[in-house]
Amino acid sequence: MFTPLKNKPLKFAVLGTGIWSQFQIPAWFEVGGVELVALYNRTVAKAELVARKYNTPKVYADPDELFRSELLDFVDIITEVPAHASLVLLAAKYHIPVICQKPMGPDYETCVAMVQACQEAGIPFFIHENFRWQWHYRAVRHALDERHLGRLHRADIRAGNGGKTVLSFQPVLRTLPHRAITDMGSHIFDLARFYFGEPESIYCHARRTFDGVAGEDVMAAMLRFPDLVCTCAISERPNFRVFIEGEYGTIEVGNDRIIHITTDKGTILRQPPEMPRYPWVTPEQDIQYGRHMIQNIVECNKHFYHALITGNLPETHAGDNLKTMRLVYAACESTERNAVIELS
């Protein structure tokens, strides 16, 4: 719990006006109850374009000046990972609640320092880990809660990283030493924790499939839970899948997002609902990202807004996401050492 925010609307600033701000900002407006009062970007011209698009009154080239000058209820950090830590620490310095994109930081020690700084400042700190807000991933969670499977035995969670197409509009991904693990891996490790709790160990392999990038773009990890074994894998091509087996049957969902719950009694199918088509999404973006991916940003922001006005911690507050970051960087260590990493 923390002190809820009472202002109406909540005044916020966005730090970073790159590609994901195209979705994050209008998603906030879709939720409602907020007012965007300022933008920061290292390249001011980019921030000015975004400011004109959303009628934002102030643009800053210096984030410290933004914090000194604006009366804010919260900030949303939408920069690339290398800038996360300094901006979160700045928010803590000015005692401003902060939301930050995933992965939280460039290494586990930095993530710990970020969480501690916000705890000491007495401010809420949330991580925009949004995969678990896609309809089909939450539908799997609901099916598990219904206990169709009894005692769980094994699971398989897979996702694709978008291949070379993603690198064309997110060039910073070319520089990541462990791209598959830190970028998309954070999503599926979070899903594993969302479904099964905290693993006891992890063993990971990763490899690079093409030149021109610093790190691996595919990976496979084995997570050992007290009563369950779960594999988590990232491929270059789109391949989204969750498969969970228990003593009474299985739950499975693939690219079609249809939930299959199969037991000795037969198979129950749960069809995905029609996702909204937002006017702020271009036809190209609608095809490239898919409506489920865009909708999860709106749902995640809605969850954060409710947390801010009630004082209740959201699912992916930074203290919880720190456990996901422990998995991410343990996977990196496992790959480098070719060793099982115990997580106790």
Q: Please, could you describe this protein's structure?
A:
The chain is an alpha/beta fold and 344 residues long. Helix content is 40%, strand content 24%. The strands form two sheets. Strands 14-13-12-11-7-10-9-8-15 form a nine-stranded mixed β-sheet. The protein has a six-stranded parallel β-sheet with strand order 3-2-1-4-5-6, sandwiched between helices. The radius of gyration is 20 Å and the shape is globular. The two termini are 27 Å apart.
Number of domains: 2
Assembly context of the chains: single chain
Outline the low-pLDDT stretches: none
Mean pLDDT: 93
N→C terminal distance: 27 Å
Report the radius of gyration as a whole number of Å: 20 Å
> Count of helical segments?
11
Tally of extended strands? 15
CATH class of the largest domain: Alpha Beta
Q: Per CATH, which architecture of the largest domain?
A: 2-Layer Sandwich
Approximate helicity band: 25-40%
Structural class by sheet pairing and helices: alpha/beta
Please outline the major beta sheet.
9 strands, mixed
Determine the strand fraction and express it as a percent band.
15-25%
* Helix/strand order, N-terminal first: EHEHEHEHEHEHEHHEEEEEEEHHHE
- Shape field: globular
Task: Output the CATH homologous superfamily of the largest domain.
Answer: Dihydrodipicolinate Reductase, domain 2
CATH topology of the largest domain: Dihydrodipicolinate Reductase, domain 2
What strand order characterises the main sheet? 14-13-12-11-7-10-9-8-15
